[in-house]
Amino acid sequence: MEGSPDQRPSLFSPFKMGRFQLSHRVVLAPMTRCRALGGIPQPANVEYYVQRSTPGGFLITEGTLISPTAGGFPHCPGIYTKEQTDAWKKVVDAVHAKGSIIFCQLWHVGRASNQVYQPGGTSAPISSTDKPISGRWRILMPDGTYGRYPQPRRLSTAEIPEIVQHYRQAALNAIEAGFDGIEIHGAHGYLIDQFLKDGINDRTDAYGGPISNRCRFLYEIIHSVASAIGPDRVGIRISPAIDHLDAYDSNPLALGLAAIDRLNMIQRELGQHLAYLHVTQPRYTAYGQTESGQHGNEDEEGRMMRAWRGKYDGTFICSGGYTRELGLEAVEVGMQTWFHLVGFLYQTQIWWIGSKWTVP
């Protein structure tokens, strides 16, 4: 099979994602790089994405901050000022020159921050709760040391529309910068996930309690952003079964189905499909470990992924510890009936794939 162009695996066959024609199904998944000095994309950011661009390829950027309160890592890029937006144009133009499609991942870390990353250097980070992340986790500080996560400030109900507006404006800025679309980061224990998971969300207002309430923040953000830039330019990433930064849920299967129900609802209301749903597989951990059984057995993982894929009406991206071998194996068991595109996180994985296959 290797070396025979007419027998290439489906991982390298074309795919139409809404308005976008992809030449293969290998996606560059988001990965924090900490290279945007002062929050401004640099020449190193341009080089990073250009190196990973192929004609008809699909790239999703590192998490990009939507507001001054959104950060929790050193030197992460933002897209809430004109200077940031203009700097991103250089990245986008260079990627487009190589023939790739690029989405900007919009990010707010919520309580996964520290006062030093907040405006003025003294404010508490915001969240759905006032419970801090436990001491088993550490935050990377600007000086390279590691510290504890502080107690966050619980957002009031009245403050939530302003956060939704920040996502909307960041999406508009991304389109102005030339991005083909955006991905809303609703996964991995960050702000949106802090509303979704019952292990964190202890609110008693319209944004807490039953699953329908915990999905409200996600729904409002996606609806607002999709209304502003068009549903087919909006992707969403969720991780219902991932326990990262104490973000766990008592029923991840039900949570994923409820979140997907809201996505399908938005598509019906706006009369157009979203660009995609991006789900991190349950086997994924923050440090790239992929052994089955860490978050439940392999059969349970497959059951959840198939249920979520079956529920969602649209393009489904799956990521989480994929190597070349795992990606090809996933294709062999039936990509079209499970998911459409495969996200790879690490540079070594991308180059290894490229060394064995010629991507069109």
UniProtKB/TrEMBL annotation:
Cofactor(s) of this protein: FMN
InterPro entries: Aldolase_TIM, OxRdtase_FMN_N, Oye-like
Domain NADH:flavin oxidoreductase/NADH oxidase N-terminal: 10-324
GO CC field: peroxisome
Keywords, alphabetical: Fatty acid biosynthesis, Fatty acid metabolism, Flavoprotein, FMN, Lipid biosynthesis, Lipid metabolism, NADP, Oxylipin biosynthesis
Single GO MF descriptor: FMN binding
One Pfam assignment: Oxidored_FMN
Chain segments annotated as transmembrane: none
Domain of life, source organism: Eukaryota
Similarity comment text for this entry: Belongs to the NADH:flavin oxidoreductase/NADH oxidase family.
Protein name: NADH:flavin oxidoreductase/NADH oxidase N-terminal domain-containing protein
